[in-house]
Amino acid sequence: MEERHVQGCIEEFFSKSHEETISLGRSFARTLEAGSVICFSGDLGAGKTTFMKGLISELTHCLEEEVNSPTFIYMNEYHGPTSVYHFDLYRLSSAEEFFAMGFDETFTQESIVCIEWAERLEDLAPEDCIHISVCHCADGRRNIQIKRPM
Hints:
The chain has helices at about 20-30, 50-60, 95-100, and strands at about 5, 10-15, 35-40, 75-80, 85-90, 110-115, 130-135, 140-145.
């Protein structure tokens, strides 16, 4: 299972496999409240979508295989016991484009909002969002840091 370290409001995990990253996403999902916004960052292929497979399938009861990154359409919606809006902003040219498409309206709903490549929003994401950073380690593990608002 993944290792866990806590430093202040940052939890740090080390995942050794695809399955552990999905499991961590599932565990994390059980801690969320309605209306939570989660901002993901990390390089291509770091494991952001893998983490979300666990998170989204836990909240909506959809199959993990049904969760994929909406790179070319910007947003996927998943409905179940809890609804989830999953954004991938990799192709977004500016934060203004996100707001011009009305996507920010999802921030006020009782659903969970997950945003990959959230740095594209600059500093315009809600102040109380949760930040998750996923990166590769030299030994093949994934480093996953979860920073909750103070």
